[in-house]
Amino acid sequence: MRRLLGFLVALVFAAGAAVLTWPSAFGLERTFPLAQVISFRAPLAAALIAATLLMLLFAFIRPVRAMALVLALIFGVSGGINVALLSDRGFGGDLPAKTETSLRVMTWNTAGSATSAESIAKFAVGMQADVVTLPETTIDTGAQVAEMMRDMGQPMWAHHAEYGEYGITGWDATSTTVLIRPTLGDYSVIQSSLDGSSNTSTVPSAVAMPVSGDGPIIVAAHAVAPRQEYMPQWRSDLQWLADQCGTDNVILAGDFNATLDHMTGMGIDGGTLGRCHDAASESGNGGVGTWPTDAPALLGAPIDHVMATPDWTVSGSVVMRSLDGSGSDHRPIVVQLERTAR
């Protein structure tokens, strides 16, 4: 009887570890509350490794030795796989020198007025950004940033989409702004982004189409956070974002409120989300947390992304950790892209 009980206990823990490590195998990566837990793979890996060490200590107690060793094996294998997965995505990469053909894309959820226009402008100019997507940023702030960048020698056009009147609601998350360097050509945010007829559900994204030139379609993304009451909207937001990557020459950047684990099965033609590939994971930064800034970057959730269709090749990226005191609870990402040779 004791042996049977021990087997059942080991089976339960093995099943739990498997679900946490490979949630997509069970179709649970976008379900509550597992979606919230797997957002933080690094703390999960640390907890599994700590549990392994604890079980090894219990193995010195003869009556529970066998069970402790079995559990140590389960926790150790699961923890090791999580570490290997994060290592494969990368814990830190650098930007190469920008060339005449490079395109630099920056995204930063600024948490509204928590981040000053001056901070955004200085960072964007310092990073030589050609495209800047700013979830939770009003057009008033975006215009200030564009003017400051112009005065620093790097002019930008400001576009946006919004839901409601942010001046009345007081919630800057109802606005998403995108800045685009004029050398990419003229752009216009499409009507369905402006009127919400085709957009993310609760907080807006902005689809900017080139009116002239051969620049990419730029999608400034903002999916709703996966709180329990918003899970259906969150899932539909991710699908909407994936649909934006169904065509050629698309750059998708912003706050997805989702890690790569949540996007399992949502790619086509080898993409991460639709036909878009995640730039950070392809350049050694996919395991670096972008939220929240009050947690160490290696323990945070990588929920902000820059993605692009195969028309673009990633040459480098950086998750900026030195701006954690700027006011926002998100870290900015800057990615360098090159046109894919044909």
Automatic annotation (TrEMBL):
Superkingdom in the source lineage: Bacteria
Q: Name one Pfam family in it.
A: Exo_endo_phos
Q: Under the GO molecular function aspect, what terms does this record hold? A: endonuclease activity; exonuclease activity
Hydrolase in keyword set: yes
Segments passing through the bilayer: 43-61, 68-86
The UniProt keywords, alphabetically, are: Endonuclease, Exonuclease, Hydrolase, Membrane, Nuclease, Transmembrane, Transmembrane helix
Q: Which residues form the Endonuclease/exonuclease/phosphatase domain?
A: 106-330
> Per its record, how is this protein called by name?
Endonuclease/exonuclease/phosphatase family protein
Which organism's genome codes for this protein?
Microbacterium testaceum
